[in-house]
Amino acid sequence: MRRIAIYGAGNFGKYIFKELEKTNKYEPIVYIDNNVNGHDWNKPGLPVVDVNLFQDDWQKQVEAIVVAVENFQVAQEMVMSLLPWFKKDIFVPDRYVFGG
């Protein structure tokens, strides 16, 4: 299984997590979020970290990042912020990519 990070711990991030749990291809191990202090982070067994902590402590442990935001422009900005330093796969799924 590919170990991944989910960038975005809101509703779409939760949806992506649930859909990925159904597969045998991907293992989400961490959420990345820009507003770690602004939400209820009772996520199922996954830590939630900001981008800086992810860079320092987590990026070597994952093979890919899934950008889990519904706004395409925001998703593009997030991908552009990752490109200079994250040299692995970055996925931006469509809201209905999993048939939800």
Structure overview:
With 100 residues, the protein is an alpha/beta fold. Helices cover 30% and strands 22% of the residues. It contains three helices and five strands, in the order βαββαβαβ. A five-stranded parallel beta sheet has the order 3-2-1-4-5, sandwiched between helices. Helix 3 links the parallel strand 4 and strand 5 (89-91). The longest helix is centred in the first third of the chain and has 11 residues, at 11-21. The protein is globular and about 30 Å long. The mean pLDDT is 86.
Summarize the structure.
This protein is an alpha/beta fold. It has helices at residues 11-21, 51-58, 72-82; strands at 2-7, 26-32, 48-49, 64-67, 89-91. Helices cover 30% and strands 22% of the residues.
Helix-and-strand structural type: alpha/beta
Low-confidence stretches: none
Shape: globular
Strand content: 15-25%
Largest sheet: 5 strands, parallel
- Helix coverage percent of residues? 25-40%
Tags for this entry?
100 residues, alpha/beta, 5-stranded parallel sheet, 5 strands
Fold blueprint:
Elements: E1 2-7, H1 11-21, E2 26-32, E3 48-49, H2 51-58, E4 64-67, H3 72-82, E5 89-91
